Every structure is written in C-alpha cells, then in structure tokens.
TrEMBL record, chain A:
<keyword id="KW-0547">Nucleotide-binding</keyword>
<feature type="domain" description="ABC transporter">
    <location>
        <begin position="13"/>
        <end position="240"/>
    </location>
</feature>
<comment type="function">
    <text>Involved in beta-(1--&gt;2)glucan export. Transmembrane domains (TMD) form a pore in the inner membrane and the ATP-binding domain (NBD) is responsible for energy generation.</text>
</comment>
<dbReference type="InterPro" id="IPR017871">
    <property type="entry name" value="ABC_transporter-like_CS"/>
</dbReference>
<keyword id="KW-0067">ATP-binding</keyword>
<protein>
    <submittedName>
        <fullName>Multidrug ABC transporter ATP-binding protein</fullName>
    </submittedName>
</protein>
<dbReference type="Pfam" id="PF00005">
    <property type="entry name" value="ABC_tran"/>
</dbReference>
<dbReference type="GO" id="GO:0005524">
    <property type="term" value="F:ATP binding"/>
</dbReference>
<dbReference type="InterPro" id="IPR027417">
    <property type="entry name" value="P-loop_NTPase"/>
</dbReference>
Automatic annotation (TrEMBL), chain B:
<keyword id="KW-0472">Membrane</keyword>
<keyword id="KW-0808">Transferase</keyword>
<feature type="transmembrane region" description="Helical">
    <location>
        <begin position="40"/>
        <end position="60"/>
    </location>
</feature>
<comment type="similarity">
    <text>Belongs to the ABC-2 integral membrane protein family.</text>
</comment>
<protein>
    <submittedName>
        <fullName>Mannose-1-phosphate guanyltransferase</fullName>
    </submittedName>
</protein>
<feature type="domain" description="ABC transmembrane type-2">
    <location>
        <begin position="157"/>
        <end position="386"/>
    </location>
</feature>
<dbReference type="InterPro" id="IPR051449">
    <property type="entry name" value="ABC-2_transporter_component"/>
</dbReference>
<dbReference type="GO" id="GO:0016740">
    <property type="term" value="F:transferase activity"/>
</dbReference>
<dbReference type="GO" id="GO:0005886">
    <property type="term" value="C:plasma membrane"/>
</dbReference>
Amino acid sequence: MSSVSTSAPDIAINVEGLSKSFGGREVVHDLSMQVKRGSIYGFLGPNGSGKTTTIRMLCGLLTPDAGEGTCLGYDIRRDADKIKRQVGYMTQRFSLYQDLSVRENLEFVARLYGLRDARAAARDMIQRIGLNGREEQLAGELSGGWKQRLALGACTLPNPQLLLLDEPTAGVDPKARRDFWNEIHALAAEGLTVLVSTHYMDEAERCHEIAYIAYGHLLAHGTVDEVIAKSALSTWTVSGDDLNGLAAELTGKPGVDMVAPFGTSLHVSGRDKAALEATIAPYRDRKGWRWEDSEPSLEDVFIDLMNRSKDNFQ
Amino acid sequence: MSATEIAGQNRDVPEPRFGFWRRSYAMLVKEFIQLRRDRVSFAMIVMIPVMQLLLFGYAINTTPRHLPTAVLIQEDSDLARSVLKAMENTSYFRFTREVHSVAEFDDLLQSGKVLFGVEIPRGFERAVRRGDRPALLVAADATDPVAAGSALGSLGALVQTALAHDLHIGDPPEMPFEIRAHARYNPAAESRLNIVPGLVGTILTMTMLIFTALSVTREIERGTMESLLSMPIRPVEVMFGKIIPYVIVGFIQASLIVSIGVLLFGVPILGSVVLLAALTTLFITTNLSIGYTFSTIVQNQLQAMQMSMMFFLPSILLSGFMFPFAGMPVWAQYLGEALPLTHYIRIVRAIMLKGAAPSNLQYDTIALIALMLVAMTIAVTRFRRTLD
C-alpha cells in the first residue's frame, strides 16, 4: 500500500521499453508488457529469443540497459530487494543445492526469507508437493520431475505474490507436466500471478494470456484467441492420401507461406487469403483429399511469426 | 497461501525481525551441511595439517636424529654396554654396525655408511674405576656440521649420567673424560621449536585461503548463484554465512596442529593458551576473509586456486617463517608487513616460546584486525548482486 506504484493495482508487471545487450548483441529490444494480477501469463518464443533475460530483468537479477517499469508496484531498477522478497523465481536449470537434501534445501529457503518456523514450513511444503518419503534424499539424486516439483516448492515457500517460471517443464514427462500445470492453476486461483516461459503449444493454451517473443522483440500478445485472430493467417486443413507429395508440391508456391503436417492432416497457411486460394484451387477438386477452411493453430501462428521476424531482424 | 487476501493490492513485506541474523544463519547452516557432504574437503581438514606438519616438521630439521653409528667394542663390560645404551637413549645415535678392527671402523666412516663411530677401548671399565680418565673415542663424519654438532653436543652429559648411574662408584669427583657442554634447553639451537609454531600459521594460511577462495565461484559454476541472488540475501550475510563455519573448522585444525606440536615435537606453550586461541581465531578469520575476497574477484575455481597460491608463496617466504624477518631487505619487510602470516608468526612464537602477554602483541593484533577489515570491505563491495 505504501509502495511507489505507478500502475493500476491490478497490474502485477508493467514494463516499458526494456532493452538489454550482452557484448554488443541486443538480446532484448524495446520490450513492453503488462501482466494482470492473478493471471497466468505465457511467455513463448524460440531458444535464445530473450525470454530468460526478460525474466531476469523483472526480478532484479539483471539491470536493463534501457526502459523502466514496475513489478508488484516496485521499481525494477531501484527496489530489487523488495521485489525479491515477494517474487518466486524458478530458474531454467535446476539451481538449488544438489548436495543438500530436499528438506535442507527448503529449510534454507525458509530461513533466508525469515520464516518464523523454517522446519515446519519445509515440512508443510514437502507434503504439498508430494515429496514425503524423499525428504532426506539429496536434491541431486532426484529425477527431473521431482527436481522440478522441489524447485516449484522452493519458490512458492515464502508465499510470493508473483511466480516467474523459466521453462519449468523442459524435460519433464507428460504426466508430471499435467500435474505441474494443475498446481499452477491452483496457485493462480489463490491470487498468485504467474509468468511462465515455455516451448510447448499445449501449455500456451493453458495460459490466460500469452506473449510471443523472438530475437528480442515482442511480436504478439493477448489471449490465445486474440493472438490467432490478429495473425490474419488463413489456414486450410487437408486430409487424405499422399500428403507428403502434396506438401512438397505446395511449398514455395505463391500465397503459400507455410505447409506443416499435423498427424494425418496437413496445414496449408498464407497471409494473403486470395493468393492462397488461387494457388490451392486446382488441388481442391482432386480426388482423395478433403479440404477444409479452418482456424490456424497457435503453432501455425507462432511459426509464421518466427519466419517473418527472421526476415525482419536477421 | 495467504495470497488471496492481498491480491489486487500492493503490500510491503516488512523486514523480518533479526532478518540479518536469520539470513546469515540460513547461509551458515547450508554451508555446514555442504561441508559435511563433501567428503574430500572433510578429509582435507584433517589430512592437510597432519601431513604438512609431519612432513615439514621432520623435513625442515636441522637437528637430525637416529644417525647411523658404528661401534668398535674392544672390551665387553657392563660399563661399555651402559655407555652404548645411554648414547642410544639420546636418540641422536642409531647403532647400525659392530666392527672388530680400527681399519673397518675407518672404512665405514670414510664411505659414509655411518656418520659416527664409537670405540670402547680395552680395559675401559678398570681405568674408569681407577680414575685414570680413559679416552672414549667418538669419531664423527663432520661433513654436515649441523647434523654432527647436536649429536656430539648431547654426548658428554648423557654418557656422564650413564656412568654415574651404572658404575656403582657414586658421584665421580671428576669427569671420566672430557665433556663438551650441552645446553639441556636451548631454543635457538632446536630448529623444531622455531619451525613448529611457524607451521601452525603456514598451514592455516593455506587451508583457510582455499576453503573460502572457492566458495563464491563454486556457487556460480554450479548454477546455484542464480537462485541465491534471486532471494533476499545481502552480500554481508552471504560472506558471514560462508566464513563462520570455516572459523570453526580452522579452530579445530589449529588445535590439531598445536597438539601435535606439543605432544610429538615437544614444543612448549609458555604463554596463555586462551590468548593463543583468541589470536589464532583472529588470524583464521583474517585468512578466510582474504580467501573470500579472492572468490569475489576471480571468474572460476582455477583462478581462485592460482590466486591463493600467489598469496601463499610470499606468505611463506616473506613472513619470517623461512628466513629471519630482520635479515630481509627493507622492501621485502614492507611486503611482509602486509601479510597476516608475518604478524601471526610473531604472535605464535612469542606466546609459545617466550610466554608473551597481550600487551607485547598489540601491534601485530591490530595489524591482523586491519587486514581482516580491509579484506571484508573489498569482498562486500566486489560481490556482484546481479548476473550482469
């Protein structure tokens, strides 16, 4: 309440014009974003697109070269200490102590945040993340899925208001991923704001809002439906025989920007609806194929955004 | 989760009570656990001081013992056996050969197979009882005068004792043969008395530096620094948390070294043990601070090791451990004054060998405190709070 807030109270993250370079290479360029409190915000983009750098600037681990903004109402440049006390940051690589046990890691975090009863807090968290029975196991000996649960437990232990999760489900099996996302939704339902970066489209679709970043530029943001609508991409779904042959034939034709197989069907997309339809017209009447005017998938949109940004920025 | 009630508004989380101590304590507990898990480091805590002390303590030894000695016995008498027994008891001599002719005796000495030769002459016991002062010949290979000197020095007094004890003639009015004076307690001549206290400081410098020099780079190289920095801990708290466990480790090491020094090398502690413990703890903390400072400057663990070695070598050479401090050129003395080991060696020698009081050690104590504070200040300033 007594904060230096410059943004509306229902905004958890509000940054403008963030830029960051390493060794002359600009990793994040003029990035602006707003994240509502209590929402799950998906942060998508290819490897090396600047997701991790952005997250680190938000929690005070990196100082932006340019730009400003607030995180939980605190200035990201001046109030890093206050932000750290209320933000849980789950790093991309497991960064708890491998040579400490599950319990010892959690107790360490609890003590660092000054929790009154560190042992009890650690015990409760072990229950919550379902690691009971493994309390005394060294963190380094846990499997990927358990490590990820432990890391999530550690960063939610001090009751943060904002979670920054950097590719939390990389290398985790589908069951563990689903459990993890259920947990994220449960936390958001309790009022936590979650910013999560990911590669997976199905995860993006579980977010309230998403942003797509490539080569340091924020290319699209909004709800999944908004992002798809704004893409202005026309997509036809083809099913039938010899889709590989069709894909080879269509690739590179005027109006066809993207051809991607999806299981037993093929997505043919283009930004120029008329040109696309002119190109595919001769194929539509052929036997054995069923053409359907459909919505582009989120993946179509992202691949298209990435292809276009490659032209623009590289 | 109490997040529901505060969602939608800003809330200042107050600094927890005793936050500084809680966070330092968190760090400290963590470091202790990690230390316990790291079996190699744990073994080093015990092995380094013991091995170094035994190696240096015996190797840098200007009064060598158990030197090979040949005996030429011309007379097999009780007295002759007593004399030889007494010589062996000095621990300078070890009888390796028994010869039967003077020629053989000379040959062994010349070839260097023995360093000493003892000849018990015929009619020795009878001559002693008559008070004829017969000659007991002890020939020494004096090519190493230092080695020979102490052994010869010990001879007179001990042989005399043996004679007095075993001869049943009461106190002999005169020495049975010429005796060279040997001081029973002479620190200046006993190199171990000088070296062992110095070794306490030298060993502590090395082990303490390495313990903390690796501490920050290890967190960076293992990737745990990213988590640590994202949590609300301040540089001073990290530093205290990383130094304090090793103060205790260092104290254990120091106790171990001093105990071995006293029990095995017979070094006395003439001054106050409490004072020695207090100033040793100060010295340990100073070294840990310097190691930690290195850790905040270097990029990786290899550099940390190199930097520690760069600091360790001058410490050995310029502190007065190897060469007398007063004999060094003035510029080297100035460099030496900037090394904690210089001050500690003065302190530890003064307390153990001279029984010095705190008032005698003021200057060196203040110097150690100053060096510690400088190191800590640099460390806290240098500690990078971001990953930039």
